[in-house]
Every structure is written in structure tokens, then in C-alpha cells.
Design a protein that fits this description.
This protein has 134 residues and is an alpha+beta fold. The chain folds into two domains: 40 residues, Ubiquitin-like (UB roll), CATH 3.10.20; 83 residues, Translation initiation factor 3 (IF-3), C-terminal domain (Translation Initiation Factor IF3), CATH 3.30.110. It has four helices and six strands, in the order αββαβαβαββ. The strands form two sheets. The protein has a four-stranded mixed sheet, with helices on one face. A two-stranded antiparallel ribbon has the order 1-2. Strand 3, helix 3 and strand 4 form a beta-alpha-beta unit.
């Protein structure tokens, strides 16, 4: 039947019982598969991660300024990666950095959820906060 129509016999579902075949133009079939895959990729949600950097001795005004930026990022649907960067001997203030990050996560509780608790990686202590689902 496919030769009479001048088309190709394409196996659609080889694992089903019995296998499913279709009489189509193979080039057009591949083109439509690629087009569907591209469309699905375009619809997929793109995750954007915004960084917010603190020091262990961040002042109250600077903290509030950065918190407001994080609120804006979370409302836009971005994830926020907040980290405290320790320079030189500031690594002695690890507890202070952890308290700062936990306070930051607590202040953003109504806008996002902490996906990762504060973790020390080298000279950075970081945590990730994801937006809340609507």
C-alpha cells in the first residue's frame, strides 16, 4: 500500500503488541517530530537564578536593600541564591553568616521557600530560595 501511494511505511510504536505502523512521507514525519520537540522545549519553564551577596558584617540598611531585591526576584519567578562571602580571617564569623542567611530566609518566607539550608563551601556560605507556587 505504501509503495502504491509513493510514501514510506514508518513504525510508530515498535514495543506495543501488535507494532503500530503508519504510511507517511518519512522526511515530513521527521520534520514534524523535530518541530514538536522544539515547541515543547520552548514551553518548558526556564529557571533563572539570581545571586545576592552578603558579608558577615552586613549593615541593616544594606540587608533591607538586598532583601527588597530578593522579594522582587521571587515575585518574578526567579530563584535566589544568597551567599555570605568570607574574606581573610572573617571565616571565624561562620555562625554570624549562618544567622544572617537564616534571618534572610525567614524574612522571605511569604514570597519563597528555602530549598537548601546554609552550607559552607570554601569561603562562601550559601543557600537557595525558590519562589512559592501560585
Amino acid at each position: 500500500m505504501s509503495k502504491a501511494a509513493g510514501l514510506d511505511l514508518v513504525e510508530i510504536a515498535p514495543n506495543s503488541d501488535p507494532p503500530v505502523c503508519k504510511i507517511v512521507d518519512y522526511g515530513k514525519f521527521l520534520y514534524e517530530l523535530k518541530k514538536k520537540a522544539k515547541e515543547m522545549k520552548a514551553r518548558a519553564a526556564k529557571i533563572v537564578i539570581k545571586d545576592i551577596r552578603f558579608g558577615p558584617h552586613t549593615d541593616e540598611h544594606d540587608y533591607n536593600f538586598k532583601r527588597n531585591h530578593a522579594i522582587k526576584f521571587l515575585q518574578e519567578g526567579c530563584k535566589v541564591k544568597a551567599f555570605v562571602f568570607f574574606r581573610g580571617r572573617e571565616i571565624a564569623f561562620k555562625e554570624q553568616g549562618e544567622i544572617l542567611l537564616l534571618r534572610f530566609a525567614n524574612d522571605l518566607e511569604e514570597y519563597g521557600k528555602a530549598e537548601q539550608l546554609p552550607v559552607l563551601e570554601g569561603k562562601k556560605m550559601l543557600m537557595v530560595i525558590g519562589p512559592k507556587k501560585k
